[in-house]
From TrEMBL:
InterPro entries: EamA_dom (IPR000620), EmrE-like (IPR037185). Keywords: Membrane, Transmembrane, Transmembrane helix. The chain crosses the membrane at residues 38-66, 87-109, 115-133, 145-162, 174-196, 208-229, 235-257. Residues 148-281 form the EamA domain. It comes from Mycolicibacterium arenosum. This is EamA family transporter. It holds the Pfam family EamA. Signal peptide: none annotated. Belongs to the EamA transporter family.
Amino acid sequence: MAALLALLAAVTYGVCDFLGGLGGRRVAAALVPIPMQAVALVTVGIAILCGFGGQPTLAVLTWGAIGGIGSGVGNAALLRGLAGGRMSVVAPVSAVLAAAVPSVVGVVSGDRLTLFAWLGVALAFPAIALTSWTRGPAGSPLRDVGYGVVAGCGFGLLFVAVDRAGPDAGAWPLLPGQFVALLVVLVAATPEIARLRRRGERLDVGTAVRWGAAAGALGAVANLLFLAATAHGQLTVIAVLTGLYPAVTVLLAALVLRERIHRQQAVGLVAAAVAVALIVTSG
């Protein structure tokens, strides 16, 4: 059950990133995360009203707020990195660390895996890096690596915090988390919006809302699936399986946009499939 929920989370995260990326191509990229986080906040509120509430203790809400800091910082850093840096550096670094940080925490906290599961986890990290790889200019400036590290650690913190909230938390930790993340992306977007206004560029808010809202609803569902997965399995395995979401984004880009899958990405997709098979069959 945990592996299935984690894979569903990966699929949903992948579709969310695909829609968010399409929105970022049509409007100023700084605008899209704002409706994303706002709609995600509303979606989580609806989930709580529908009975996915759990127990809103102080510890649960605190871990949720900490996760929101990670989510907001991760989104802001990834946005800046992809917009102004080398995607071929920022994307794989952030994706690998987003899976690695909670995996390390899980192992230190006492997760015990079978040999096949360990093999799957070990194979998943290069799979994540390869599927996230995009063709770009040569070289990898320290700034681009830094964006990837900050984004990956932010998303990793989100996963760890959601897990630490506990299996009885329901959707409650995501409510303060989404609120804090919304504040973070608003602060991060303000300078970019001010710069665009000074240059007299039109802010297509309607388009940003349409794409951001769709991505935000999916992002909230993905968070709920990840939260449900942590109640049924070990964080190490769940984080790695969820971290394979770039494979979904790559496949959607190939199927919908007819983008070419590069050789490295093809190898990554195959490695991801093998990693999933090893982890799932390990029980």
